[in-house]
Prior knowledge:
The complex is a heterodimer.
Chain A: E1 5-18, E2 21-34, E3 38-42, H1 49-56, E4 64-69, E5 72-73, H2 79-88, E6 90-93, H3 105-115, H4 120-133, H5 149-161, E7 167-171, H6 179-194, E8 198-203, H7 206-211, E9 214-219, E10 222-224
Parallel strand pairs in A: 3-8, 3-9, 6-7, 7-8
Antiparallel strand pairs in A: 1-2, 1-4, 4-5, 9-10
Helix pairs in contact in A: 3-4, 3-5, 4-5, 5-6
Chain B: H1 3-16, H2 18-53, E1 60-65, H3 77-86, E2 90-105, E3 108-117, H4 120-124, E4 129-132, H5 137-141, E5 146-149, H6 151-157, E6 170-173, E7 176-184, E8 199-203, H7 204-212, E9 218-224, H8 230-244, E10 252-256, H9 257-300, H10 302-310, H11 315-344, H12 359-385, H13 389-393
Parallel strand pairs in B: 3-8, 5-7
Antiparallel strand pairs in B: 1-9, 1-10, 2-3, 2-6, 2-9, 4-7, 5-8, 6-7
Helix pairs in contact in B: 1-11, 2-9, 2-11, 2-12, 3-8, 9-10, 9-12, 11-12
Amino acid sequence: MDQENIIYMKDIVKAYKMGSNELVVLKEASLQVKQGEFVAILGPSGSGKSTLMNIIGCIDVANSGEYRLSGQNIDAKSEDELSAIRNKEIGFIFQKFNLLPKYTALHNVQMPLLLRGLDRKIAYEKAKDVLEKVGLGDRTEHKPLELSGGQQQRVSIARALVGDPNILLADEPTGALDSQTGKEIMDLFLKLNEQGNTIVIITHDEEIAKKAKRIIHVKDGHVYQ
Amino acid sequence: MRMIEIFRAVLINIKENKFKVFLTSLGIIVGALTIILVIGIGKGSQANVQDQFQRLNVGTLYIMPNFGGQTTETLGVEDIEAIKEEAPSVSNVTIMVSGNADVNYAKTSASVSIAGATEDFQNINNLVLAQGEFINNDHNEDRKRVAVIGAEIVTMLFEEEADSEIVGKDIIIKGKRYEVIGVLERLGGSMQGFNPDEGIIVPYDVAEKYIVGKKARTRVMALAKDIDHVSDAIDEITQILSKVHKGKSDDFRIRDAGSSLVAAQDSAKAMTLLLMSIATIVLIVGGIGIMNVLFVSVKERTKEIGILKAIGARKKDILLQFLLESIVISTSGGVIGILLSIMIMPLMKYTDIRVIPSFFGYGMGLVFSVATGTFFGYYPAMKAANLKPIDALNYE
């Protein structure tokens, strides 16, 4: 296994129990993502791509197989260790933004750093910088519901970026946005990739996927690199 | 996450749900209030007992005939002489007789309880004179018609006189003239069968001869040397009475004041205990209320918990956030309860219940509130902390 692989997955199996039946969602899926790549994971709904993304993001665990993230063996981690990995290694961007509605944009972006135990002042400076970087320098004190969909997604991208993660993981990041805003968000991802961020985007939209540098297809639980 | 940030998150949440938080803390408010009042009432009733018995020597023994029995043995001066000489555990003994009589002074007249007593009566009952002197043995031997009057009698008979002029005045008891030689200080409580505040004390022989008659109910009061000699004293007195009354000692009853003090203290304690258990029940109900609201809150905020976990919240961060929320709610409930009790307690003087506020009471109210919040908040908080990130995140 070479060092530059940020994601190294081999023979990942994930199955859910549905009553007495077992539903196998991922069938021995294997994939690698290297440092600095911009990868789109493309597949129709029900293909298992969301499950794949959850396992990559360490919010779900595989039943079997091998998964290394930045060289760390994920299978052997405790829940709190996984929390620390999600906090430091991964920046999540969700389809429905998943911002905390009671907190301001700035507070939302601060959260990963605060959870890390950083001082609020340091988190404040960092969060403000990142919000400016995504073009929301003038919206820091707004709460999510006072922002448009595109702005909310920018806040969510800022939250993902703030902790300097090794990988940005975006689940249908344009899915809840109109096409113009979606295009702007994709341009932002391209820009971030040029700046050296490794990005993995999950999508069912081929147009979106084409913007990425590499496409991984997922179908019926199989991964085709 | 730093504690201060967790605390900030808790406050943001509480601010968003003010009304719900208020309803939740109601149970704790009532619980804390109950505890503080209960402790206040407990202290009040203990103080009542203390007031009642403060002038009483715990070594005091009361010996009285068994009325309603077959025989009509009475106690007399020969009994106290015998006890004085033959009972080594008894340090002091006196005889007393009591009854009611009409008393006149100027135009005022009233029916008052009269006690006939000897010199030792004062020591045994810890009577203190405000003015003048108490009855002494010479008064008894000479059958002098002198009287020592209680504090209430002063206000009743001598409304118009200055306090210093009362000693030396004559009053009429059952048609005979008595000189007031002393005024008692207010006792505030009553001894067995005779309340010195509302009574008049005259020499024993005088009372027997002029006021209550030969067949009156006599009673002997003895004082044990100290509290450890009370049961020895009872045994000795029983033997002496049996000798003097030729085996009819069963006709007399001996009671010691210590045991009635213990009984009164016990009943005050029992009342406190009963009230305490009511307060505990109130707090448990309040705690269950908190637990319910927190469970609902955990359900409502499942998505939020999922988001927090996805961006790196550890179990401890979630646990502390919910636990602290419960503790903050219950603590403020406790504080409100204390403030309410401070407002309510002065109103209790309009009832017969005596309440004594104390920092101990406030402290207990607060401690129990916080303990309830912690105890009942823990389980929902644990549930929130143990949510799987993927399940919480996908919860709609």
